[in-house]
Amino acid sequence: MPRQTPLNAAHRKLGARMVDFAGWDMPVQYAGVVAEHETVRNAAGLFDVSHMGEIEFKGKGALEAANRLITNDLSTAADGQALYAGLLNDRGGFVDDVVAYRFSPEHIFICVNASNREKDFKWMSERATGVKPVDSSDGFAQLAVQGPKAFGIVQRLADQKLDGVGTYRFTRGKVAGKGCIISRTGYTGEDGFELYCAPGDAEALFWALLEEGKGDGLLPTGLGARDSLRTEMKYALYGNDIDADHTPLEAGLGWIVKLDKSDFVGQAALVAQKEKGVPRKLVGFELTDPGIPRGHYPILKDGQKVGEVTSGTMGPTVKKPIGIGYVPAALAAIGSTFHVEIRGRAAAAHVVKTPFHQRG
What we know:
20% helix; alpha+beta; Alpha-Beta Plaits; single chain
């Protein structure tokens, strides 16, 4: 039986369509994916992301222990700053993509994907030196308020001014009277916050946010819209666009890798790949023929399979059939053409500049 977040009863009360996602009973939509997608782009949406995992390093040496496991460099971050990063295997492939929060050199907090909670904790525990990680996942619920109206909604309920909390910065405070980590992060391409709170406070916080945001058009939003929103931004999804067999350099995520920092797991493999040259790249493309690209559809060049679609949709905001997929490096330049096989039919496509949607 799927696990339930603290907001399960609230989702059902609102009539959400529930699905099993990574072993969790989660809302895929309420009013409809397209309507919720557009609400986030134009006003604000409220997501339950309590299924995500939280792993903490605490004590003297916490910074050094955590930093050796991630690709980005927490030693150059300030207290109160978060970094997007990868956990890699020895071949340079992704174990997961994570957000690492630096509270202090003695307290590092890492948010991991729901499907990888247990795997990531085991992986970190086996490799951490000095300070061992603690799985704090059951101690947190997480709500995401995303969209151009998100800042105002959260600010009106917060006990402090949030103007100084810039992108990928965070603070502690109260929202609707509930203690939270207030993080200026998200995975939609819009402004907003992710609020980490105690599980017992989640439902009261959820209803308070919906009530406060009513006049701004805030709506509860499901995982379906979360997926189409991140696809329009070409944000990678673990298990689709990145996995154990693909490296950050291949995925266009070289910016989250600091090869010049002290040793981290997978570093040697990335150095070797960079020297040799990346053989394939993750690109964004548009179809110029009718059809919608979907995950695992073959990418063809001159009738031969050369790659595979990893994510695809009819972009609700860009109003075009868009996709993400791996192609040989020689086909990765903007303007390169190929075909996507859709149910036995070859649909023409070309590589475009990403993100597909330009915010603002």
